[in-house]
Amino acid sequence: MTVNESDWSRLQALLDAEDGPLLPALRRDFPGLAFVRCDASDMAASRPFRVTPTADVYLIDGRDHCVSLTSDLGAATGVLIALRERS
Predict the structure, then answer these.
(1) How far apart are CA 11 and CA 23, in angstroms?
(2) pTM
(3) Per its UniProt entry, which superkingdom is the organism in (predicted)?
């Protein structure tokens, strides 16, 4: 499964809601996509696809042998959520 604009709109609504555990909700609503969470400091050298108030969001392309980051929704097979510390 790859991400389309409609999927992204739904994904972004869940990311913005911050209502309860995020990854279980994302995995439930998008069973064909991979979701990964890490600390924002782990991704400091990369440019996020989108920025939310609490996280930097990256798209993952896992179609080939190696996983890579992408900015192409049509190539995205997953989402990496890099959480920032709350102040």
Answers:
(1) 11
(2) 0.85
(3) Bacteria
Tens of pLDDT along the chain (87 residues)?
778 888 888 888 888 776 667 888 889 989 989 999 999 999 999 999 999 888 899 999 998 888 999 999 989 999 999 988 765
Number of structural domains (the chain) is 1
Does residue 35 contact residue 27 with C-beta atoms inside 8 Å?
Answer: yes
Instruction: Give DSSP secondary structure letters for 18-82.
Output: --S-HHHHHHHH-TTSEEEEEEGGGGTTS--SEE-SSEEEEEEE-SSSS-EEES-GGG--EEEEE
